[in-house]
Amino acid sequence: MDDVLLLDLAASLARRAAAAIEAVRRAGFVVDRKSDESPVTEADHVAEALIVEGLRAATPGIPVVAEEEVAGGLVTAACPAFWLVDPLDGTRDFAKGRSEYAVCIGLVREGRAVLGALALPATGEIFGGLLGAGAWKEDAASRRPIQARRPPPEGLTVLASRHYADDPRMGPFLAGRPVAERRSASSALKFCRVAEGVADLYPRFGPTMEWDSAAGQALVEAAGGAVTLLDGAPLRYGKPGWRNPDFICRGA
């Protein structure tokens, strides 16, 4: 299966998972707690089972690292190629009735996120990106190419994590930069907005896991943007414990 077909597979599974998440939301659900006290719901488990089953059936030679399986104690060693799955990124907001949550499916090769599919269930948007082949957005109207933008003359639109918006590192980082607007948002939705050129900068200070960022990084970089560490080095995958350091997502 070539990379275009792999992206189509990931996008199809993200779309199906988004529909399953919305079905759970409409039916009502209970919020449980994992061992680290982070929230988890039936929607997380239903979406992950759907995605993992689909990936393993279609690509049996590519291991899958999925958030809830890891939380349940399934240990998968990093290898030259593997899928990273966050079935419901932004569970806290989902549980609170907000609309900023996402489905994230990314493929990693040799430590680099090479393709990503993301779904925003509340809005019906699907995004896909493949390094070297570009990025696209699909909604009720159409599927169309997207591209990260150069910052406009009036200044940067900066996105901050809703739950880490007051991080004391944000002010010094933005000092001296021309900021036109600063917004708080949750989940991998922020990668999508940078990729489609409606925001310019997403500095991430605070803990994230590799499944939180792989699909979004591939999308942004396929759209002409970049995701790097604070020193400009690339954000890589297959790290011990699947934990990310702080990173910066920027447009063109």
From TrEMBL:
The UniProt entry, under Pfam families, shows: Inositol_P
| EC number(s) reported in the record | 3.1.3.7
Give the UniProt subcellular location, in the record's own words: Cell inner membrane
Superkingdom as given in the UniProt entry: Bacteria
According to the UniProt entry, its GO molecular function terms are: 3'(2'),5'-bisphosphate nucleotidase activity
Q: Which reaction does it catalyse?
A: adenosine 3',5'-bisphosphate + H2O = AMP + phosphate
Q: What class of enzyme is it?
A: hydrolase
Give binding positions for Mg(2+) 1: 67, 86, 88
Has the keyword Cell membrane been applied to this entry? yes
Q: Locate the residues binding substrate.
A: 67, 88-91, 212
What this chain does, per the entry, is described as: Converts adenosine-3',5'-bisphosphate (PAP) to AMP.
PANTHER family associated with the record: 3'(2'),5'-BISPHOSPHATE NUCLEOTIDASE 1
HAMAP family in UniProt: CysQ (MF_02095)
What protein am I looking at?
A: 3'(2'),5'-bisphosphate nucleotidase CysQ
**What lineage does the source organism belong to?**
Bacteria, Pseudomonadati, Pseudomonadota, Alphaproteobacteria, Acetobacterales
